[in-house]
Design a protein that fits this description.
Layout lengths: L14 E5 L5 H12 L4 H13 L5 E8 L2 E11 L8 E9 L8 H15 L5 E3 L6 H9 L16
Parallel strand pairs: 4-5
Antiparallel strand pairs: 1-2, 2-3, 3-4
Length: 158
């Protein structure tokens, strides 16, 4: 798989949101690597395999398509009763081509995922992100998300 970013598509095309298909996996991997700087093909292949194997409405993996090309994706899952929490939707992957971020692609992906979460019976959505990721933090805050009731703690295991 090539890690080169595809040429930008016209920002004037319409965006459609749909369920990921097997032929989208390479584009998801390439986009994620271009944005995060880390190649994770095994992670995305495993996630897709889990999604494909489940006929479960609590797991969603969606792509945004413009002019026949994948330009963004979101992945999430309803998880129940972790750490004393009620069941809620979790967003654990979201990327959009940088040149299209101001075209509401991420918002459309997020809104569609939230619709799926509602249909699965939950009324809350959560995510985690790095404290210094101001761009992603601003995006999620623009969607009405704010700090939740839990604090992440960690320890290095050397």
């Amino acid at each position: 798989m090539s890690s080169a970013v595809q040429p930008a598509v016209s920002a004037t095309g319409s965006v459609s949101i749909r369920t990921v298909r097997p032929d989208d996996l390479e584009a998801v991997i390439r986009l994620d690597e271009a944005i995060t700087g880390a190649a994770k093909p095994a992670y995305w292949a495993k996630l897709f395999a889990e999604f494909e194997a489940a006929s479960d409405p609590t797991l969603s993996f969606l792509v945004a398509e413009m002019s026949g090309r994948v330009v963004g994706f979101i992945a999430g899952e309803v998880r129940a009763v972790e750490f004393g929490s009620d069941a809620c939707g979790w967003v654990f992957g979201l990327d959009v081509e940088p040149g299209l971020r101001v075209k509401s692609v991420g918002t459309k992906l997020f809104d569609t995922l939230c619709d799926r979460f509602r249909a699965a019976g939950v009324s809350k959505v959560r995510t985690m992100l790095a404290r210094d990721n101001d761009l992603v933090l601003a995006f999620f805050r623009s969607l009405g998300m704010m700090a939740g009731p839990f604090i992440q703690l960690e320890k290095d295991l050397d």
